[in-house]
Amino acid sequence: MAHDEAHDVRYAVGLDLGDGESSLCWLDTTGQGPGEVYVRGTEGTAVVTALGRVPLTPADPTDPTDPTDHPDTDTDTDLVHRVVIGEDAVLARNCVHFSVNFKNRHQPTDLQAVQFAQVFLAEFFARHPEVQEDCVVHVGHPAGWDRRSVKAYLRQLRALDVPVRLVAESQSALVHVRDRRAERPGRGLDRVLVVDVGSSTTDFTVVEDLVPRNLPVGTELGCREIDATLARIVRADFEGADSKDGARFTEELRQDGGAHMLMLVCRRAKEAQFTGTDFKVQELQAGCAREFVSLVTLSVERLRSVDIPGRVVRAPGGWADRFADMLTEVRALLGATAPELVVLTGGGSRMPVVRELCAAAFPEATVENAAEPSLSVTRGLASIGRHSVNVVRFRRDIQALKDRPEFEEAIRAGLVEAFDQAKSSLLSRLLARADRLYANDEGDLDALIRELTGLDTVLADLRATLEAELIPLVLGICRSYGIRDDQFTLDITLPEIIGTAITRRIRALWRVLRNSQGALDVVTRVPQVGLMRLRSAMRAGATPAQMAALVAGMAVIVALPKGAELGARQLIKVTLGNASLDPTEVDRLVTDVAERISAQMDDRAREVERFLR
Hints:
By secondary structure, the protein is α/β, with parallel strands linked by helices. It has helices spanning 87-91, 112-127, 129-133, 147-157, 169-181, 224-238, 244-253, 258-275, 279-287, 293-304, 308-313, 319-334, 352-361, 376-401, 405-431, 442-453, 455-480, 497-539, 544-578, 583-609, and strands spanning 11-16, 21-28, 36-37, 47-48, 50-55, 71-73, 80-85, 96-99, 135-141, 164-168, 191-197, 202-208, 211-214, 341-345, 366-369. Helix 13 (352-361) links the parallel strand 14 and strand 15.
């Protein structure tokens, strides 16, 4: 994919420029529903990738107000033509035909794909002008293309009047499959191989740990080879044959566009045998230009007698053997990492032999055929457009979340509650005469404070509080982007500075707290010392006068600790009660916690982006 900055556009358009057929899908990036595939007249969603020029005559002028008309001038004859695509290029009379077989390691001078895309998009935009005003068009390219070929292709497509980005076709199909499987909980995409069987190439994308990797395999094998083999069979029977049929066939084959018409007939005959329908072949016979009637009729009759799946596809050294060899190469590239799931997509994946060979190559994997395989790429391209825009919006909304008053207030209240909890724990420990009050150094003192405040428990409770308060706010944003609750977890990791700030604040009070608790220890020991003296005097045989004086003194001594204890307790309570975190420090902590949560959400956005690279 071209690493352009994603824009917050309203519409995403997916354009699958196929070697045989093309399709277009678009969707509103603000919604979550499926994309809509463009239907072109009688062709439906599959538009023949053909480009033609129809000469214009004075009696048949181009309507300058019609955006779907594309006049072109032949520089050799100064004759003006109207550029047409699809069936119009194949069936129109007096049409100069071009086959847009452009996926052959792109050459900078080959602009037929661009011209086809221009006409196709102009036609679509004429019917949907609101899309043209605010969209990005995502175009697929074979996954096996090297970077140089992709860049050359992108340079050509930049001639279009809308922003364009390129995405590997099998990767696009993967995103479509991912969207479909997201509707079925419990079925992930941990180790997946996507096999996109197209007309010009067969693409392979492997996904491991959410990271897609396009394999450099398959650029030289597409279903077009089957069409070419069928064309050779028909040519061998008719071209140059000493018969009227042979003469008519040869003459029409030599007409401009004749060879391309033969390839189209072969493609339709192949599809007819694999799908069990003959509808489009009959359409060709009924609607083709007069100069190709014999070519189409004779070709169709001959191809009806050919067992295409058995004689052509499965023939020794044929397409199926080459596909099997390619799967062996893919298996070697994957090494010990075998896929759990193999997803088959692309029009060619409808051939049963594709599923059969994939199941044999990866017996440990589940093999799944994509629904509407010929549209998986174009739907995936549009979906990638929406995902790209939504990643930008997701990040924007998460960044804005940390500045919302309720988000900040939840963090602030949690921090104050945590400090109060730490003070309460310390107060109860000091009043209960904690055994250990002295530390050898700063590190030991911090550990002592952490122990007496129960800081580990305090921080665990703070994290639980913040999760309870903040996750609903975060999930509200996630739901707006179609992320289900059971697919999302937010583990709030508190920054160490929270514990450090609490410890530092307690440390500043430690001398007062330590001395106050020390006083408690002293007043507790004083009565015990007096009683020990009385017992000693009695054992030593003190006189009654000495005992009376000692008892009178002890009355005073015993009365003193009561007041001292009350004073020490009160000092501890007041000291801790008045303690609070510095407001500036609280502001800094709130910002830090909010940034940590935003960073985690940014990681979630990157997980989505992995499918878009």
